[in-house]
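Exam revision sheet. Question 4 asks you to relate a sequence to its structure. Input first:
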Amino acid sequence: MAAKGIHFEADGAEPEDQDASQQRELFTRFEVQKLLGKGSYGTVYRVKRLSDGGIYALKEADVKKMSQVERMDAVNEIRLLASVKHPNVIKYHEAFLDGNQLCIVMEYAPNGDLSRFIKKGNELKKAFPEEIIWRYFIQICQGLQSLHSNQIIHRDIKPMNIFVGDHDVVKVGDLGIAKMIKEGCAKTQIGTPHYMPPELWMNRPYSFSSDLWALGCLLYELMTYRVPFEAKSMGELRTKVLSGRYRPITPGKYTNDLIMLMQSLLQLNPARRPELDKILALPIVQKHMNGVPVKKAEKAPSEHNVYSTIKIPSDLRLLQGRLPAAEYEGEKGHGKPDADGVIKAKHAPPAAVGH
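Answer key, C-alpha cells:
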C-alpha cells in the first residue's frame, strides 16, 4: 500500500515590480506542469527542469508582499533545507530571486503527503496496515534524527509535512518554521495547534522533545484517522492537551507495541518522551526495520555543516549572491556563504530578473 510559512531595514530597497514584457527566469529554465498547493507561505508547483528533464517541486513567494519577519523565515527555510542531507528529508536543489519572487527548487514527492492518505483511508473506512505504519514511522524518525543531530527543531511535524516518494520512501519536509538552537531551548510559541505539546500551551521553553509530541500525535492519527485532541475552540483544545487525555485506540486493531510507543511520545512531561536514538534502538523497532532504507544521522556534526545565518542586504536584489549553491546531481554548485553571508562563487550565480 503506497501512502500516499524577514525584518528589512527601514531604508532597505524593495524589489522592483516585474516588467510584464520581461520574461521571467522561471519560465526560461522550467516548465510549470501542475499547481500542487497554495497558501500564506506561497505557491508550490510541479515543474520540469529544461536542462535535465528532471521533475521537481518549486515554491515561490512574493517577497515584496512579505513582512520583514516573513522574509527572514523564507531565507531561514532555504538555509536549513540546504544544510541537511538525508534520504528521509526533502532535498534542496536551488534557490533564486526572480523579480519579486523568491523561488525554492526542491525534491518532488510523486505520491503527495500523508494527509492525503489519511483522508482517503478515512473515506474508504480502511485502516492503515500496521506494517506500513511502522515503515513510515521509522523513516520519519530517521529524518527527524538528522534534523536534531544538526540542532534543528522542526516545530511543525504533521501529516501535511510528511511526503511520500517512490517505493514508499518517506521524507520530512517544509522547514518554514524550523529553528536551529545551539544551546538551551526555544521560546517562540509557534506550530499547528493540534500538534503543539503542553509546554508550548503553557508558554514554557521547549526543545527537541516538542517534535516527539507531534510525532506521537501523527502516529495516533495514522491509527485512527483523527487527531488525539479534538476541540471546538482553542481554549478547549488547550485544556484537553494539558490533561493529556485522548480516546483510547480500539483494542485488537493494532499491537500493544505500537500503541505503547505512541503513548510514550504523548507524555505530558517532555523529559519522559524517548529520544530518537533510543526509539530507533528499540527491539520492536529493529524488528520492523527489515526492508526499510536505513541511514543513521551523523553524530555531533561540526557547526560548519550548517549554513551560517544568511544576512539580508538592504537592497534585496543582492540577496541572490548570498543564497546557498545550486545542488543538482552531477553538477557542481557555487560554494557556501562566508562569515558575512556572501558566496564566493566558483561560477557566477544565475542573474536575477529585475537587476
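Marking note for examiners. The chain is about 30% helix and 15% strand.
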